[in-house]
């Protein structure tokens, strides 16, 4: 049974990568359409939050600080998605297929970044 288990592990490992890429591309697509975490973060940021802090216990304040740190990290992650999309697009399509690259640029503001990359390369 040891050998069987090893085989199973090998299969699940090789299946994991494409699955991860698929999930990532779905997330990227959602973010590109503006359904990403950025909108949620904006809604939660309100002037009321500042007043609430006065009524919180130190414990609650600490929890809230942690939450807001995580939220900021999440927001920055969203901003990095554009860079990630670019890299993925280049890997998937290669530099030759200009037509597809044009479409990708329209979908996200990638134009300036990709021209810079071309110059450096």
Q: Please, could you describe this protein's structure?
A:
Helix content is 83%, strand content 0%. It has helices spanning 2-32, 37-44, 48-52, 58-93, 98-107, 111-120. The chain is mainly α and 121 residues long. It has one domain. GO terms for molecular function: protein phosphatase inhibitor activity. It comes from Certhia familiaris (Eurasian treecreeper). Keywords: Protein phosphatase inhibitor.
Give structural attributes:
elongated; mainly alpha; about 120 residues; 6 helices
| Oligomer status | single chain
Helix content: over 70%
- The domain count comes to 1
Q: SS-based structural class?
A: mainly alpha
The major beta sheet can be summarized as: none
**For the CA atoms, what is the radius of gyration?**
21 Å
Determine the number of helices (DSSP H or I, runs of at least 4 residues). 6
Task: Enumerate the spans where pLDDT stays under 50 for 5 or more consecutive residues.
Answer: none
Shape: elongated
Order of helices and strands: HHHHHH
Total number of β-strand segments? 0
On the 0 to 100 scale, the average pLDDT is: 66
Gist of the model:
One of its GO terms (biological process) is regulation of signal transduction. By secondary structure, the protein is mainly alpha-helical.
Strand-helix topology:
Blueprint lengths: L1 H31 L4 H8 L3 H5 L5 H36 L4 H10 L3 H10 L1
